[in-house]
Write a structure and sequence with these properties.
Keywords: Lyase. Belongs to the enoyl-CoA hydratase/isomerase family. The chain is an alpha/beta fold. It has a domain of 183 residues: 2-enoyl-CoA Hydratase, Chain A, domain 1. 52% of the residues lie in helices and 15% in strands. A six-stranded mixed β-sheet has the order 1-2-3-4-6-9, with helices on both faces. Strands 5-7-8 form a three-stranded mixed β-sheet. Helix 2 runs antiparallel to helix 13, helix 3 runs parallel beside helix 4 and helix 6 packs across helix 7. The radius of gyration is 18 Å and the shape is globular. It starts with 8 loop residues before the first strand and ends in a 12-residue tail after the last helix.
C-alpha cells in the first residue's frame, strides 16, 4: 500500500502488522489545514484495505496529539459555503471511516487533544491517554455546536450528565479525569504512554483477527445507531459557521481575549 500521497500523515511500520499513524510534522503540534483534514478522512479507507496492517496506533508529535483545525481553515469555513460543504463531508467521513475500518485502532493521547483531533482520539477502539494529557472539545467556546463526534459517542462513554457538563462549557479534562469518567479506556504516566500503546497493539496483533474485527464491527453498531444524532450535530455545527457567534469566537482566539457573544439567539 502506497501512502506517499499523504503530506501531513506518516505510516511507521512495526512487526506483526502493527503500524503507527503519526499526525503532523516533527516539532509542531499537529493542526489540520485544508489538505490535512481531507487526509484524515481518507487514510482509514487505505488502512482498511492494507493487507499488511492488523492494528494501528494513532498519535501526534512530542508537543501533543492535536490542536484541531488551523485558524485559516476555520476562517475560510466562516466565509465560504464551498469550504463548509467540503469540511462537512470530511468530518462525517473521519467518523464513519473509523467506525467502518476493520482494523483495530488504538490512540495514544499526549498533550493537548482538541477539536477534530479529539474526534480521532476518542473514536479509536482503545484510547490510552497520558495522565497529564489535556482533552478539550472547544466547539461551543468557538461559537458553533459540538459536532465532529461528540453527540454520537460522549453520552455512551461518560453518560449524558458529564457529556453535557463538559461539552456545553468546553471544559478542559485531564487524561486522568477522562479515565475516571470513562471517556478514555485507560490513563498512564506520560513516559509510559507509547510503551503501553505498543504492548496493547502487539497483544491485539497476536490475537485472532477475524474474531477481533467482527467484535469491533458488532460493538460499533451502537455508534451506527447514533448516526442520525451525529449527522444532525455536524449539520448544526456547519450552520453555526454562517452566524455571528463564530465570528466573535474566531476573533477572540486570534486576539487572545475572552469572547463576548451576542446575548440572544434567533430561536
Amino acid at each position: 500500500m502506497d501512502y506517499s500521497r499523504y503530506t501531513s500523515l506518516e505510516i511507521v511500520r512495526h512487526e506483526r502488522g502493527v503500524v503507527e499513524l503519526v499526525m503532523g510534522r516533527d516539532g509542531k503540534l499537529p493542526a489540520a489545514d485544508h489538505a490535512g483534514h481531507g487526509e484524515l478522512a481518507d487514510i482509514w479507507r487505505d488502512i482498511d484495505r492494507d493487507p499488511d496492517i492488523s492494528v494501528v496506533i494513532v498519535r501526534g508529535q512530542a508537543k501533543g496529539f492535536s490542536a484541531g483545525g488551523t485558524l485559516e481553515l476555520v476562517g475560510d469555513m466562516v466565509e465560504s459555503f464551498e469550504h463548509r460543504a467540503r469540511v462537512w463531508k470530511e468530518a462525517r467521513d473521519i467518523v464513519y471511516n473509523m467506525i467502518n475500518c476493520s482494523k483495530i485502532i488504538v490512540s495514544a493521547i499526549n498533550g493537548p487533544a482538541v477539536g477534530g483531533g479529539l474526534a480521532v482520539a476518542l473514536m479509536a477502539d482503545i484510547s490510552i491517554a497520558a495522565k497529564n494529557a489535556r482533552l478539550i472539545d472547544g466547539h461551543t467556546r468557538l461559537g458553533v455546536a459540538a459536532g465532529d463526534h461528540a453527540a454520537m459517542i460522549w453520552p455512551l462513554l461518560c453518560g449524558m450528565a458529564k457529556a453535557k457538563l463538559h461539552l456545553l462549557l468546553s471544559n478542559e479534562i485531564s487524561g486522568e479525569e477522562a479515565e475516571r469518567i470513562g471517556l478514555v479506556s485507560m490513563a498512564v504516566e506520560a513516559d509510559a504512554l507509547m510503551d503501553s500503546a505498543l504492548e496493547i497493539a502487539n497483544r491485539l496483533a497476536a490475537g485472532p483477527q477475524s474474531a477481533l474485527r467482527w467484535t469491533k464491527h458488532s460493538l460499533n453498531n451502537w455508534l451506527r445507531q447514533a448516526g442520525p444524532i451525529f449527522d444532525n450535530s455536524v449539520a448544526l455545527e456547519m450552520l453555526g459557521f454562517t452566524g455571528p457567534e463564530v465570528r466573535e469566537g474566531l476573533a477572540a482566539v486570534r486576539e487572545r481575549r475572552p469572547a463576548v457573544f451576542p446575548p440572544n439567539a434567533p430561536f
